[in-house]
Amino acid sequence: MGEPRYRRATAADQRAIVAMLSDDVLGASRENALPAVDDCYQDAFAEIDADPNQFLCVVENEQQIVGTLHLTFIPGFSRNGTKRGQIEAVRIASDRRGGKLGEAMFAWAISECRARRGSFAQLTTDKARPDAHRFYDRLGFEPTHIGYKLKI
Predict the structure, then answer these.
(1) Is 123 within 8 Å of 89 (Cβ atoms)?
(2) How far is CA 4 from each of CA 19, 58, 96, rounded to the nearest angstrom?
(3) Cβ distance 95 to 62 under 8 Å?
(4) Is the whole model's pTM more than 0.85, yes or no?
(5) Which residues are 61's β-sheet partners?
(6) 130-135: which pairs have CB atoms within 8 A and are 24 or more residues apart?
(7) Of the residues 2, 34, 69, 139, which has the fewest C-beta atoms closer than 10 A?
């Protein structure tokens, strides 16, 4: 496997992204992996693509999309006005898992956060993902906060 290439997702990448989001125990029940990309994804893509603080990334290797992640750069007033880099929706194609691609993707994402003058990178992870928790711990992320969500 050669070096991965990171780029901003295009509308043509939506099907591959949805497929990766769906190819997961939790994602299978949350995503709508129909043969065609549902309007909800097209609308979300258009909004993300128009926002300069959003970067929906695809990772290519050997001309195939093998990973995706979504970076949000959150401007802040606290912490001396620095930005936070929120890393979400990280997925790797099932046939590429276990080959250190995740580590490379996070190194790239953290570098992007630094380039945007972010003070730190943060993420949320489902409590039902202990393997992911060990991975994030190994990368140096610390579980410093308790997150709350309200489903609306």
Answers:
(1) no
(2) 19, 10, 12
(3) no
(4) yes
(5) 64
(6) 135/102
(7) 2
Identify whether the C-beta of residue 41 lies closer than 8 Å to the C-beta of residue 91.
no
Q: What is the pLDDT of residue 28?
A: 64
- Count Cβ atoms below 10 Å from residue 52 Cβ, excluding itself: 7
Smallest CA-to-CA distance from 140 within 125, 119, 121, 116 is with 121
Q: Which residue in 56, 52, 91 sits closest to 71, CA to CA?
A: 56
What size, in residues, is the chain?
152
Residue type, 132: A
**For strand 54-61 and strand 64-74, is the pairing parallel, antiparallel, or unpaired?**
antiparallel
User: What end-to-end distance do the CA atoms of the chain give, in Å?
Assistant: 43
Tokens 């990766």 sit at which residue? Answer: 20
For residue 148, give the amino acid letter. Answer: Y
Determine contact, residues 121/85, Cβ cutoff 8 Å: yes
pLDDT at 59: 98
pLDDT average, residue stretch 114-125:
93
Cβ atoms of 17 and 69 within 8 Å: the answer is no
